[in-house]
Amino acid sequence: MIYSRSSPTLRHPCTVACWILLLGVAVSGCNSSDYDLAPVEGTVLFEGKPLTEGQLMFSPVATGGDMNSGKAGFGNLKGDGTFEISTYTDGDGAVVAKHRVTLINNPKTPAGKALGVNRVMIPEALVVESGRKNNFTIEITREILKTYSTRF
Question: How many other CB atoms are found less than 10 A from the CB of residue 105?
Fold first, then answer.
C-alpha cells in the first residue's frame, strides 16, 4: 500500500494529539466514584488481643429505597491488628455511609485456625463520616463468633 502526504497517519501531530486526548478521557474515569469517600483505619481485636491475619470488607448499606449503595471497600489486617480500607485505590477509604462489616478469615493461617470460622459479620453497623479520618476498634469475642459467623 502506498501512502501519500495527504493520507492520515500516526505521524501527523494532530492525529497523535487526538489519540492522547482520547486515551486520557477513557482512563480518567477508571478510578472515579459517584460516591464520596473518607479515610478509614483501625484495629481488630480478638478476645482483647490484636488479630494478626484476615481481611475486612466494609459494605455500604443502601438507604432511601436506592438499591445501589456504592462499592465495598477492603483492608488486610497487619501483624499488629491494624487495617486501612481501600475502595478504588490504595488507602482511599470507604464510601461515606453506614456499613455492614465482615471479617473474612483464612482458615489455613495460625490466626485463622484460632478463630475457627470463615467469616464473621460484625453485629453493629459502622458509620463512615465525611471530612474526617474514621478510626474504628472492632472487638470480636467468642460470643460474637457463636452468633455471627459461618464455620469452615
Answer: 25
What letter does residue 129 receive in the DSSP assignment? P
Other C-beta atoms lying within 10 Å of the C-beta of residue 26: 9
- What CA–CA distance (Å, rounded) separates 52 from 43? 10
For residue 26, give the C-alpha cell.
477513557
List Cα–Cα distances, 134 to 70, 92, 103, 121, 129, in angstroms: 18, 12, 18, 19, 7
Whether pTM exceeds 0.85: no
3-state class of 43 per DSSP?
strand
Task: For residues 56 and 59, give the distance between their C-alpha atoms in angstroms, rounded to a whole number.
Answer: 10
What does the pLDDT look like over 90-129, one tens digit per residue?
Answer: 999 999 999 999 999 987 888 788 888 899 999 999 999 9
